[in-house]
Amino acid sequence: MAPPGSRAAGPLPSGELAAGGLAVAADLPALHTALDDWFASNARELPWRAAECTPWGVLVSEVMLQQTPVVRVLPVWEQWLRRWPEPSALAAEPAGEAVRSWGRLGYPRRALRLHAAAVAIRDSHAGAVPGAYTELLELPGVGSYTAAAVAAFAFGRRETVVDTNIRRVHARLVSGSALPSQALTAAEMRLAASLLPEDPAASVRWNASVMELGAMVCTARAPKCGQCPVRDSCAWLAAGEPPPTYTPKGQSWHGTDRQVRGAVMAVLRVAEDPVAPELFHRAPADLGFEPDGIGIPLAALHRLNAAPEQLERALAGLLGDGLAELHRGGFRLPA
DNA sequence: TACACGTGGGG
DNA sequence: TCCCCAAGTGT
């Protein structure tokens, strides 16, 4: 049986849309037109959507946008593309520079993988971002969503793009649920494939419009149904807006290893030289001197009052992940 | 399959 | 204040 990532876009098995999707499937062209029109006049002007944006620019944006809001990505993306206009430019620098330039976007391993992807593009693709889904999927940090998104948005290919926005729109519009299932299913991929316009250019617009609708109107909390161009076709509205059938479990943060890792990374990002282990374990004041430049993030780290073993786990984890390395007895970003 | 992985804005 | 959540990936 096909895995969730399967991109088979064959004909819709009869009964696939039985759970509330019949009304939508009945008039797909009208749905395509409605979202096309809405997108044409409501889409945000984002730099990675500009005609002159390169595939590299699209790839960088897609990785930065993983689990990260557009407004925070914007300035960092501009900075990255100015400094590294093509993959080979990034590949020529130490991975640590990518991590440092990542700033406070979060999930810094993405920066590491983007750097590794740039190296792979230089070494295995003659410096040009590949346009085929399967080749994109081979790149570090590129999963099924990002591979499909880059193939579609940078190369105009007909791909089944499924992100959290698209899943939510499909859940409401077609399936009549308040939220998509907790994990991406093969059925969701089949549904998405069945809704995709046949024409490649139209499919690209469709993918972008559904995503934009999910981001701007059909939001997770307090959807703006009054502004929705397809509210009259919405299975969830028709069903009387039934509540979610499960409660999403929150991401814990306070007191976790992740919080400590984040604080350590904040220190390493601003450090000019390797940071001695003692500085992580003992407050600078106790050591009798003020470390140069890293005082503020170091103070933030110590305010967490992490247990020694928790600090050890964080440092070991960062070393294991390649986000930090030991140099002359101190911790630093990878060179 | 479920969990780990950063960060900060909005309700 | 606290909690939710944002264009996911890798294990």
From TrEMBL:
<dbReference type="InterPro" id="IPR003651">
    <property type="entry name" value="Endonuclease3_FeS-loop_motif"/>
</dbReference>
<keyword id="KW-0411">Iron-sulfur</keyword>
<protein>
    <submittedName>
        <fullName>A/G-specific adenine glycosylase</fullName>
    </submittedName>
</protein>
<dbReference type="Pfam" id="PF10576">
    <property type="entry name" value="EndIII_4Fe-2S"/>
</dbReference>
<dbReference type="InterPro" id="IPR044298">
    <property type="entry name" value="MIG/MutY"/>
</dbReference>
<keyword id="KW-0004">4Fe-4S</keyword>
<dbReference type="Pfam" id="PF00730">
    <property type="entry name" value="HhH-GPD"/>
</dbReference>
<dbReference type="InterPro" id="IPR004036">
    <property type="entry name" value="Endonuclease-III-like_CS2"/>
</dbReference>
<dbReference type="InterPro" id="IPR023170">
    <property type="entry name" value="HhH_base_excis_C"/>
</dbReference>
<keyword id="KW-0326">Glycosidase</keyword>
<keyword id="KW-0227">DNA damage</keyword>
<keyword id="KW-0378">Hydrolase</keyword>
<feature type="domain" description="HhH-GPD">
    <location>
        <begin position="64"/>
        <end position="216"/>
    </location>
</feature>
<keyword id="KW-0479">Metal-binding</keyword>
<keyword id="KW-0408">Iron</keyword>
<keyword id="KW-0234">DNA repair</keyword>
<comment type="similarity">
    <text>Belongs to the Nth/MutY family.</text>
</comment>
<dbReference type="InterPro" id="IPR011257">
    <property type="entry name" value="DNA_glycosylase"/>
</dbReference>
<dbReference type="InterPro" id="IPR003265">
    <property type="entry name" value="HhH-GPD_domain"/>
</dbReference>
